[in-house]
Amino acid sequence: MSEPRVVVIGAGVAGISTAHVLQQNGFTDWVVLEKGSDVGGVWYWNHYPGLTCDVPSQIYQFAFAPKADWERVWATGPQIQQYHRDVVDRLGLRDRIRCDTEVLAAEFDDVSGTWTLTLNTGETMVADFVVCATGVLHNPSIPDIEGLADFDGDVVHTARWDDSLVTDGRRIAVIGTGSTGVQVVSALQPKAAHLTHFVRSPQWVLWAPMWLPQLGLVSEAFKRVPGLLDQTHRALLWASGILADVVTTPSWRRRAVQAYARLSLRAQVPEPLREGLRPDDEPLCKRQVVSGSYYRAVKARNASLVTEGISRVEPAGVRTADGALHEADLLVLATGFRAHDYMRPMRVTGRDGITLDAAWADGPRAYRMTAIPGLPNLFTVLGPNSPTGSISLQYSADLTAKYIAQWLDRFRRGEIDRVEVTEEATAEFNRQVAEAMGPTVWNTGCNSWYLTEGGGIDLWPFDRATMDRMLAAPDDADFHVRSTATRG
Ligand code: N01
User: Fold this and answer.
1) Contact in structure between 3 and 25 (CB atoms under 8 Å)
2) Which of 41, 133, 141 lies closest to 369 in space, CA to CA?
3) Ligand 1 centroid, distance to 181 Cα (angstroms)
């Protein structure tokens, strides 16, 4: 037996899932490094006003740590962040997680077959395996708008919100119309002196009552009736499979959801405002935005919608292409993320000096979301093609971590000491992905963070059964596996 030294990078949904699997499988030499000051990942970094998860809480949770008494059907960001803290404490994972520890570089040594990690603390760490659980929506995308640095008021990106910012009674400009922009506009408009929403590309917004409480009697039933919480979670996973079908396969169900999106706009917004809010693309093509309050917010007297392009930012506000100056005291950038960075800016150098930047010049690419040619003994959890638009993230993180644990177990049993996915298997997986993207709604012609530099769509186009099958057990034919017996 040779216990693998494992470093997991990131303590968000993917990292906590991985930690739980390592713990459950009796691995003893592992640590989670987290650059933030607490666990939670996106839920740690994002705390802008209005942050709510648009996936119901009873499914947006770990199957291994179900929570009976969510306060709301769609929990708020702080509630979800607290849940992650509680799970880590309850499962005894806290001691394994080193916060405020960023991995700056990871380099594979061909001779020893180990990874050397360089940390922000000045330390180095040697590992037999690295698991990158670094998330997708992590690095804020700051728009390249002329004059941004000259703005006299406050500028803040939603993913790095400053809780000391005063928002009430101010003139607020918000740029961006994704899920974040819609949430922050809805939250800030009621108490703003004025709110201007800059909409370059409107998005379809599905109406849903996001404020709905989870009834006390439901929470009590979950606590008292044996198996009910678990069964409900399973039922919701099954139902989310139908949702995945809506985006992956053309059907009357897709058309029904799209009709509902169009109705949400038509029923709530009169012309001429409706014109500015009507997208050109099909509903569901981008990550669907869900809100019960956005249209109310933009219709309010103290709000204006600006669809004219932004030409520059000036000290007093935002100048649009028509020459108008929209004065503001606070500029909120709800401009999204550099979604395809994944573990970067960490510098990753694999076998034979192959760098991740070079390997991913045309966009992120992996085998079954988890293995990358040229990077032996390194895996990703919620890596490229993860189902951010369909299947439960917690489910796929758990499944992927269990898959990785099987490789670690073979190392522990002394069978192998090095494993690297082949280029052929990765190319074949990506060919299957591209083919399966054909009938998906994501392929109907819209521009979003789903699209990669090389023109691919960075999502999971298959159903959950396919994911189960692909990650059930490692297939040696898809890997260069070096057994300890043949090590020379
Ligand atoms: O980011 P986005 P997001 N001038 O990339 C605009 C998840 N999430 O943070 O479309 C003007 O969707 C850009 O315009 P355009 C969820 O998966 C989940 O909102 O490029 N506008 C777009 O409107 C989501 O999909 C929850 O024309 C500029 C916006 O900025 C993902 O996070 C909540 C611009 C960026 O939209 C990302 O959402 C929140 C410029 N120079 C987020 N540059 C849940 O509830 C960019 N834009 C679970």
Assistant:
1) no
2) 133
3) 7
Q: Which residues contact residue 124 at a Cβ distance below 8 angstroms, ignoring those fewer than 6 apart? A: 116, 117, 118
Task: Report how far ligand 1's centroid is from the alpha carbon of 188 (Å).
Answer: 17
Task: Please give the helix or strand (H or E) that residue 289 lies within, else none.
Answer: strand 289-291
pLDDT at 488 over 80: no
Express each pLDDT in 415-426 by its tens digit: 999 999 999 999
pTM higher than 0.70? yes
How many whole angstroms from its chain centre is CA 420? 26
- What is the mean pLDDT of the segment spanning 49-60? 95
Q: What is the pLDDT of residues 286-317, one digit of tens each?
A: 999 999 999 999 999 999 999 999 999 999 99
Q: Report whether 382 contacts 366 (CB < 8 A).
A: no
- Give the binding-site residues of ligand 1, using a 6 Å CB cut-off: 52-55, 137, 143, 145, 175-181, 183, 198, 200-201, 287, 310, 334-337, 388, 449
SS3 string, 180-236, reads HHHHHHHHHHHHCCEEEEECCCCCCEEECCCCCECCHHHHHHHHHCCCHHHHHHHHH
Closest residue CA from atom 6 of ligand 1: 176
CB 101 within 8 A of CB 120: yes
